[in-house]
Structures are given as C-alpha cells and as structure tokens.
Design brief:
This protein is mainly beta and 104 residues long. The protein has one helix spanning 7-14; strands at residues 2-6, 26-32, 35-38, 53-58, 63-68, 73-79, 86-90. A hairpin with a 4-residue loop joins strand 5 (63-68) and strand 6 (73-79).
C-alpha cells in the first residue's frame, strides 16, 4: 500500500499512537490478492500487476495519481480536500515480498 497522509496522521504514526486509519486521513493504492484498490475500497479496473508504481501529487489541483512507470500509463487518480502538508506513506504488507523506493 502506498500513498499520502496528512501531517496529523503522520505524527501519530511516528509516535506509535495510532494503528488504524480513520476514513479520509489516508489516500492510497493497495495491491492485495491480485487486485488494486483505492482508499475506500474502489477497485482499479483492468490492470495487471506492475512492478513499479509511480505516485504524483498535484496539490494545486488537489489530485493524487498512481501510474504504471514501465508502461507509462495512469492506473487511477483520487481527488482530495486536505489542507496543510501531506507526506508519503507506504506499507509493505505482511507477505514478505520486497518493496523498494526509487528516486525520480
């Protein structure tokens, strides 16, 4: 799972005072059981697993986009109404598979 969180949630995660996300505090893309889904459970239709997922945050347009880096195509976008700072978030899950972060 990867995406962005607001500053309040980031601070709670860093201090280990939160382990459950409240609706609206996390914008993310999750890959589980062979399928992608967005925050809130909306499925991403017709996409095969990709090895590199890109994340693009456009704060002026209030939009977070996820894309397949190797195929150079959009997976899905989310609109948001956060104010203030947003921070990267990723969770490798519990399946033991490798997760890496690449620079731009």
């Amino acid at each position: 799972e990867l995406g962005v969180v607001c500053e309040e949630i980031r601070n709670r995660l860093r201090s280990n005072t939160m382990n459950i996300f409240l609706k609206g505090n996390l914008l993310s893309l999750r890959f589980s059981q062979g399928e992608y889904s967005l925050t809130g459970g909306k499925g991403v239709i017709n996409w095969k697993p990709c090895s590199v997922v890109g994340v693009f945050l456009d704060q002026e347009a209030s939009k977070l986009s996820f894309f397949d880096v190797e195929e150079k195509c959009l997976l899905e976008s989310l609109c948001f109404e956060f104010s203030g700072n947003l921070y990267p978030f990723f969770s490798p899950g519990s399946d033991g598979k490798w997760l890496g972060v690449r620079p731009l």
